[in-house]
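Archive entry. Fields below.
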Amino acid sequence: MEKKEILEKLSTAVIEGDKNLARESAQNALRAGINPLEAIDKGLSKGTEVVGAQFESGESYLPELIMAADTFNAAMEILKPAIEANKQQVRKEGIVLIATVKGDLHEIGKNIVATVMETNGFEVVDIGIDQQTLSIIEAAEKNKADIIALSSLMTTTMPYQKEVIEVLDDMKLRDKYIVLVGGGPVSQKWADEINANGYGETAIDAVALAKNLLNNRKQTVAMD
Ligand code: B12
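PREDICTED_STRUCTURE:
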């Protein structure tokens, strides 16, 4: 089967909520040597975009969103071990505290970012979804995190990414952390606006960004 066809099948599986097709296509993707992260970005995630648009236009309802998420996760059961198999046995890059912000229950993207960062040498502390600003900051302090990674999938919860940065500022902790933001509606423009250190469109971007920002920080500290 051709790569294009497999990616289309992954997308179709999510749109139709067909878990068997999702599992079968995930297996086919791995057999065909497709990078599991490409299978996610160019396959499964394309399906969620369609489901999201159908929901927005009133063509489908909450059960369809739930089915899409379950189907995505069924494929992830097969893809996740393949991502983890590429684990880099390198020096520890840094500690990442990751959460989905207050009021937001979306976790698929956050989980992928956590897995990919872990596979690339970061220690990841995932405190889950719907996390209050103060819980996020407390967890970052407790775990001696270098990076706070905040996921938000809704325009209504994006302001809580801003709130985390503002409260860090108020607590005079802002300079201690690299704050990365991401999730569907988040953009570089938003990241600049709220004074985040970086924005990543995908999980892979998040890794590159985190490594660069940490290296820059280490160099700055060394020069001081
Ligand atoms: C699946 C889904 C759900 C599932 C979530 C299940 C789960 N366990 O996560 C359920 C059914 C629970 C759900 C509920 C709701 N949802 Co919903 N959902 C979706 C859907 C279809 C897919 C989201 C998804 O998982 N995408 C796949 C992942 C892989 O993509 P991703 O999260 O964007 O992550 C990637 C990048 O963004 C990035 N990334 C993510 N996080 C981070 C963090 C950092 C730091 C970095 C660097 C990068 C990064 O990396 C990831 C991988 O590359 C979207 C549609 C869409 N277009 O996104 C709607 C969508 C997000 N939902 C929406 C809505 C409205 C809702 C509900 C309010 C519906 C309702 N009436 O109840 C509730 C809200 C519940 C709540 N309080 O949060 C809207 C939001 C609109 C808005 N206001 O902005 C959307 C956009 C649909 C739409 N077009 O209308 N939803």
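CURATOR_NOTE: The chain is about 60% helix and 10% strand.
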